[in-house]
Amino acid sequence: MSDITPEVREKHWAKTKNLTILTLIIWFIFAFGIHWFADSLNTMTFIGFPLGFYMAAQGSLVVFVIQIFYLAYKQGKIDEEFGVAEDESET
Amino acid sequence: MSLSGGSMKGSDFIKNLPKIYGMYTGGFIAFILLMAVLEQFGMSADTIGIMFVAFTVVIYAGIGWMSRTMQVDAYYVAGRQVPAVFNGMATAADWMSGASFVAMAGGIYFGGHGYLAFVVGWTGGYVLVASLMAPYLRKFGCYTVPDYIGTRYGGNTARLLAVIVLVVASFTYVTAQINATGTIASRALQIPFEVGVWFGLTGILLCSMLGGMRAVTWTQVAQYIVLIIAYLVPVFWMSNKQGFGLIPQFAAGDAVMRLTELEALHQVGVLKATESFAGLKALTVPHVAAGTGMAAWKFVTLAFCMMAGTASLPHILMRYFTTPSVKAARQSVAWSLLFIFLLYFTAPALATFTKLQVLDPNFATGIIGKAFSDVAALDWIQKWSAVGFLAISDSNGDGILQINEFFMRGDIVVLATPEIAGLPAVISGLVAAGGMAAAMSTADGLLLAIANALSHDLYYKMIDPSADTKKRLIVARVLLLVIGAAAAFVASLQLTSILGAVAWAFDFAASGLFFPLVLGVWWKRANTQGAIAGMALGFLAGTLYLVNIRFLGGDVWLGIDHLRFAIIGMPVSLIAMVVVTLMTPEPDAETQKMVDDMRVPKGDTVLSATH
Lengths: 91, 611
What we know:
- The structure holds two protein chains of two kinds.
- Chain A has helices at 6-36, 38-41, 51-81, and strands at 45-46, 49-50.
- By secondary structure, chain A is mainly alpha-helical.
- In chain A, a hairpin with a 2-residue loop joins strand 1 (45-46) and strand 2.
- In chain A, helix 1 packs antiparallel against helix 3.
- Chain A is elongated, with a radius of gyration of 19 Å.
- The two termini of chain A are 17 Å apart.
- Chain B is mostly helical.
- Chain B has helices spanning 10-15, 17-40, 45-66, 72-77, 84-95, 98-111, 116-140, 145-153, 156-189, 193-208, 212-241, 248-266, 294-310, 314-317, 326-344, 347-359, 372-376, 379-386, 412-420, 425-463, 469-492, 503-522, 528-551, 566-583, 589-599; strands at residues 281-282, 390-392, 406-408.
- A three-stranded antiparallel beta sheet of chain B has the order 1-3-2.
- Chain B is globular, with a radius of gyration of 24 Å.
- The interface between A and B is large, with 51 and 60 residues.
């Protein structure tokens, strides 16, 4: 463990935090933001659905799935960048 | 340590997983086809139902037997060798309960847009699991969630409080699951409900007792495959047979629009029921209308409680302790949600189609607005009324069935859809097997979470730290048996009016555990005293509010009803934790180093591999 210096830890954590905050902002919009306005969105349609209904039935779910795959990919890149990813032998 | 079951061990087994489960899936499909053929040769629907439930439960028990183990890390965390995709399937089965499988589409049928808050909440929660919890807890190397709380914050008080919240939340949930296995087993096997409950429990214990987490993991993967096939096949079949479209999830849009027209025609929401039947409801809520103000507030608060609860429920978090690496834990959350998504984005389509078939006079299946006597003569109406799941009554005596004269239980939307749509009996048998798989897999995970917390955290860490491996694993199994029996006993009493909704489990977990778990990773300053205050006061505030509004007739504040009591518990937990932490000294250097180590994937786990 001693080969990770405090500066590297700090930078790695700062970048991790930024990614997490970005993730949570997008999550917040699709978890709550758009559903608050579902009634107004229902005046529009998307692939045949009223939009507000669509977002709750499918739209937000799609965003969540993509978000988590992206998060896993991006965090893996950050870990590699700072040399704090697991050794391949461990996985 | 050579006592472990040979066939479920080693890297060969892991490498061959796709092949093994591929063959299993092929075998299951062959079984479905065989049943379909036998149906043509005159096998009765009842026999087909029995075959489906018995065959699948025997397979799960067989997997449980092959996965038996006497190793601590295999028992608690499946030896930490479950690949991300397979752990994703296991988590999806662990997650999707009898409630998701049987009740969700029915909830949407009756609740419309408002009920979709559950769909959004039970998927969005995984964003919190992936970003705030799972990878860090995996790096920590704990066996159970209280193991993490107890080590991060130190001291037996914090550990004990985590155990208490876990037990209350999970036990609330597990009785509902055993209840569901009892209902399905009793209907499929034609045995009394009380016997069905014990049959269900026996199946559940066979899957978990001998092999702990390892056995539960490999049975849950098998159960996921059964439940997802059982959910999707009828919907695809119905969508194509009734001419909605090839892909039901995309074809549902037009059906939703048509439904809105029909609701105006049938005066949904205008006509109120003038009679009442125990446990049954008439449709009074429009499908799409979302509302503003209070309706929007109720939507987002419910979604929030379910999300925070998802990220705090130990039986879900502990699934991510079984992956081979931190990276795999992260990927595994993504796979979990993808597998859950397959069912969750199908449920609204299923609800929409079923409702349309009942409401649309152009369909042969339409009943609303038809002559009362014709509807009363229908097979499925008679069958489901006979068991009290459905009722029709010509309240205004005009000889026509109106929307407010048709009553049913939400559960039957999934169970009866094959019959409403006129699908063969083999599909009903398949759906019963799917419901059984969903309820059993969730019950397994919950029972194991409770028993492991009691055996590892309460017994081994607090009562008898010198116990050897054999003794620990025997205690773990005895506890599993006792808790399972207790849950089955409570379920067999059918205290539905006292036991709450599944949502309560999420609110309990979120009130007590969410902030201590999150801040343990994300706030290095968080200390023992703060965590104790956060868990105790948050859990207490939520529980007292629930008791007050539910049992003592207290006022509901701002629409925060019994499904949403974490809206009270969580802020109390956060404030208590922050204030008490800041009033007391910061954690020692060792704890702070623990947090540093948790935040980077590289290096050994904080707790040693076997502890």
